[in-house]
Amino acid sequence: MVKFDWSKDRDRRRLREQGADPLNGDIILPARPKQRPGKAALRAELAAATQKITRRIKCPCGHSGVATIPAAWAGRALRCSACGRAAE
């Protein structure tokens, strides 16, 4: 059986929750624990990431077409499948 030092555990928890004493007159405010985002915020973020955008693509070589891409790729330059150059 392992001996566990509960006083150290209490001290660590207290420091984590309440902060530390100021040194040399500095003011240290206890930090609030980071709040976990709610399910609605996570679902909205997921919906925005998986949203599709339809773009009309025209290549300098003359090829053109319509592509459906994820919203995360909105700023990326797409390449032509025929010549490999960056399409507009």
The rounded distance between the terminal residues' Cα atoms is: 68 Å
* Arrangement of strands in the largest sheet: 1-2
- Strand fraction band? 15-25%
Average pLDDT taken over every residue: 79
State the oligomer: single chain
The helicity comes to 25-40%
What does this protein look like?
The chain is α+β, with helices and mostly antiparallel strands and 88 residues long. Helices cover 28% and strands 16% of the residues. The chain has a two-stranded antiparallel ribbon with strand order 1-2. Strand 1 (52-58) and strand 2 form a beta hairpin. The termini are far apart. The model has no long low-confidence stretch (mean pLDDT 79).
Would you spell out the secondary-structure blueprint of this structure?
Layout: H1 6-18, H2 39-50, E1 52-58, E2 64-70
Antiparallel strand pairs: 1-2
Features:
2 strands, alpha+beta, single chain, 88 residues
Can you describe this structure in just a few lines?
The chain has 88 residues and is of the alpha+beta class.
